Amino acid sequence: MNNSKFMDLLERILMPIAEKLNNNRYLTALRDGFLVALPLIIFGSIFVVIANFPFLDQMISEEAFAAYQEALGPASDATLTIMGAFVIVGIGYKFIANQGGEGIYGGVVALAAFLILTPQVVEDVEGGIPISALGAEGLFVGIITAFLASTLYQYFVNKDLTIKMPAGVPDAVSRSFSALFPVSLTLTLFLVIRIIFEFTPFETVQNFIYTVLQEPLTALGGGLPATIIAVLMIQLFWFFGLHGQIIVNSVLDPIWYTLNNQNLEAFQAGTELPNIVTKQFIDTFIVGIGGSGMTLAVIIGIFLIGRSRQLKQVGRVGAPAGIFNVNEPIIFGLPIILNPLVIVPWLLAPVVVAVVTYYAMFFGLVPRPAGIIVPWTTPPLLSGFLATGNAWQGAVMQVVSMVIVFMIWWPFLKVMDKQYYEQEKEEDNSSSASSNGTES
Amino acid sequence: MTKILLACSAGMSTSLLVTNMQEEAKARGLDAEIWAVAQDKAESDMEKADVLLIGPQMRFMKRKYEKVAKDVGIPLDVIDAQAYGRVDGKAVIDHALNLIESK
């Protein structure tokens, strides 16, 4: 009784949190903005993988390998490396479009505002924009600027600070003018902000945001304690049948992507990778082994020890999708949701895997994620290999994680199977008894 | 023709259900169009649908979708968690038809 009351209470707390986080208009635009950039990010990732094919550097001469890498370089430099630019356009566009405004102006005004704030000097040469400003370093400034610029733009549009065209002027023409005032006012404000910052010790807004916001937040988000909390939150939401991944991602993606691109920059430069926890640490090594809770190992467990028909049925339905990290059939079918029997392995297994993976990477047994974004539907083993920059240890790490999950689940799965099995036996007995005509 | 729209976070797990529902519709001789979308496309696709069913893991979207559904004039509901877990096309088709009928 008390148990179910406690469950009700938790559900009543978590449900509004899920609703607020998922439907918050800033977080919605943020998520949509990343979605706009995602195809480009993945395109760039594919070429990082191709440029770093294993053993290739040993098969061809050093010069040929360098030429090969150089030839492929622009593909990722123009997309993955400067993902900030696309995220900014995406956020600006979606934020305005979601409010019913003209999204494209939101997108370009966001990008222009960001560029106004960006130092336009590369190694003392004027007229260049440092690529790093559009990558990891600039992601936080970019996100904040995108929201600020598009909000200001829409504010000025709503104020009706536009030039009215006489009747008869084609609609497209008057529309092009209607954006003029809001865009100009917004960008002027950003120019003023830039000039003001030149008089501060930070010199640029980039510097300011990087020092006071981005660095502390990424340091916090890249640590093991915050990662464990994030993983636990994902699991807890899912336990109540709420999509934990999408809820937690919408808050942590900016941090995880920033950490990711820092690693990418180091990987491309051939220097030591600074971060362990990145977007791919979560997506590939925690979630991407069958879906949230790494249920592929649970499915394998069912096939190995399952005697109950119901359990085996769940395994058969869940296996094909599970290979591609879609596991709703397991979560709702086993069921995992609201099932007190599985709450311990459900919460414990991903945390243990997170800790083990973290330290395996910390001690260099497994290479750190190289900043390559692997689509979350990529099957495990392949995803671990790709995410670590074509390292077999990445795939082995995922196998080890599956063994860990399997061992933690084993006793609980046994109990569950026994319960179902005996239930089924009873049902069979009573149904055969009633078919013999004896009333039970 | 009956048009059934399913929505979840990325339209992945609901698309599993779509396949089973299409088979069930075919078996019943029901002329139906059934498709799954990601959460951000659900609102725009509602105009083309007779009913919207939401994956239970995204049930916190119901309140938001309700406003649009009311404007468009279609019923909506959250898919039963058990039927979702079984990827039970039959039960979900029944659910959809009931919603359309009792509108």
Average pLDDT of chain B: 91
Q: CATH superfamily of chain B, please?
A: Response regulator
- The succession of helices and strands of chain B, N to C, reads EHEHEHEHH
**Uncertain residue ranges of chain A:** none
Largest sheet of chain A: 2 strands, antiparallel
**Main beta sheet of chain B:** 4 strands, parallel
Task: Describe the 3D structure.
The complex is a heterodimer of chains A (440) and B (103). Chain A is 73% helix and 1% strand. By secondary structure, chain A is mostly helical. Chain A has two domains: 24-221, no CATH class; 269-428, no CATH class. Chain A has a two-stranded antiparallel ribbon with strand order 1-2. In chain A, β1 (121-122) and β2 (125-126) form a beta hairpin. In chain A, α5 (83-98) crosses α6. Chain A is globular. Chain A starts with a helix and ends in a 5-residue tail after the last helix. Chain B has five helices and four strands. Chain B is globular, with a radius of gyration of 12 Å. Chain B is α/β, with parallel strands linked by helices and 103 residues long. Chain B has a single domain, classed as Response regulator (Rossmann fold, 3-Layer(aba) Sandwich). A four-stranded parallel sheet of chain B has the order 2-1-3-4, sandwiched between helices. In chain B, α3 links the parallel β3 and β4. The mean pLDDT of chain B is 91. The chains are: A mainly alpha (440), B alpha/beta (103). The interface between A and B is medium-sized, with 29 and 22 residues.
